[in-house]
Structure of PCI domain-containing protein:
Amino acid sequence: MSDSEDYEYEYDESDQEAMDDGGGGVGDDDADDGGGADDDEDQSFEYTDDEGDGGGGDDDDDGEGGGEDGEIALENSYYNAKGERDAGDIDEARTTFESVIRLEVDRNRRAAGVDDNAMDVEEEDGAACGTTTTRLTPLKHHGPWSYKAIKQLVKLNLRSMDGNAIIRDYIRMLRVSSSPDAGISPNAMEKGVNGMLERVSNLITSQTSSTTAGGGGESGGDPRAFAREVYDLTLEAFHPVKGICPNERLWFKTNLKFGQLLYEMNETTRLQGVIRDLLVSSGQAADVPGEEGGGGAGGTTAIFRPHNAIVNDAGGGKGCSGGTHAMEIAALQIQLYSRLKDTKRLRAAYQRAISVRGGIPHPRTLALIQELGGKMHMSQRNFDVASQSFFQAFKSYDEAGDRSRLRCLKYLVMASMLHASSINPFDSHEARAHRDDPEIVAMTNLVQAFHNDDIRVFERILNKNEGRIMDDEFVREHVADLLRTIRTQVILRNIGPYTRIRLSRIAGDLNDIPIEDVEGLLVSLILDGKLDGHIDQVGGILVKKSQKEAANAGSGGSGGSGGERDATNNSGRGGNTSIESRNLASIMQLTAALEHLTTVVSKVGNKGTSFSQQMM
């Protein structure tokens, strides 16, 4: 996650180390692995460096008279092999690279006084079927040219997707890099390994699980299988305690890369084991679901359970602590819990991540945390906070130069509309620069239609999938909420001047949606207190209460002209209005009763009717 920063920092270190040690250009050849460029870009630099610095050749050929000639022969063979590779002669290139390895091993054996012609490479081929414990041992008598040639063989095997050959040559690469005879600097080794892991990850994420060319066995046909094995071998080789070349920094970063690859391959059970290892190594509590179940079926638990125990015995991985690592681990946790829909742990991991102080993670890590945090807030319908998280994610992606910034900008626009905010997201300085991007133009038009309450244009943009808005699964999940929000706005605007309006008229204003949908929207508005009225379903009419009727209802329901008058005067009389209204209504009722009694008495006197009969 923070690899690009590390590569920039380490490039100067490797150059300085190569100059100090006279390493024969090994670090230079490895530089292309970190950046993913082709080896030919560095070819002339390597050749000049090797030719001008005789220290590497003298070290390798002590006691041999033709040391300089041997170094030149190795160099020529190596670049001949690269030329054959570029010309498309893959099989010939493999043979030439193998000859480079054999030539250097033979030379180093003679220099060491070893007469045995058997090569460790051949011994390793026979051990490739054994356990990783027997495979990962340092290879003797190999030098920097052997390391470079083996690395090229791994790349050729990745091209042809030969799983067994990839594993065989990658094991050789790890064994040579860990051998003190090879003289590979830690920086060069780390760059070479990181480059290979990046190639494997990119290969897996860009390909389907179709069968590919390769030998028989577990790793021959399934690219995911050999990708897992490549990472397992790397983690074992550089384990801080039991590895053949302990490197806590590289082990930690490899675990992070492996966790991201497992997430993309949707292997959540194995990912839980990786996160558990990272948490324990950094001294944090391993709060991971399914801990009792281990790492899953097969040989998964065998990889991680020893790591947990070893790291605990080693004192908790003191070199892997810190705010940056804590945020990188939290980013993996947030991805895992989002996929598992474990809201409780997701919220806890997000809160831990945003509360970290002192860490300087890569902007992509920050963006990932904020993006998934925004999605979490969206699921809780907390649209205001979600829009803020998406805006922070957009800025972090923009800082990293990542195209994912456009995706987060879409989410920001959507959250702003769901929040019914009157602020246009494109008014911000950061977002304004992208409003004319082809992927964003449709969202710009959508926001404009939303703020204009133009539901016909709004729905047309969604139905035509302009700018491929509907291709995003997360956007599709909230389309219903978007339509409900703009329809609610249109209803409140259109019914404002009226006290009675037909439901069919409202349906027409909403682009001819069914009457049942109109009734559902109106019921929601009434229940939310945004609309005061009722629905006459028999007549298909919405009846709104007028201001006077609403005031009368609040004053106790008294009728007559006096009640309306009191209602109109209520606005300026504070909390005594209800008592005065009731008193006035009682007086009026008493007056009416006395008037009725006077009338009855008059009729009794005029007609001689009994008082009791009139009262009946």
Q: What stands out?
A: The chain has 32 helices and three strands. The beta strands are 500-502, 533-536, 541-544.
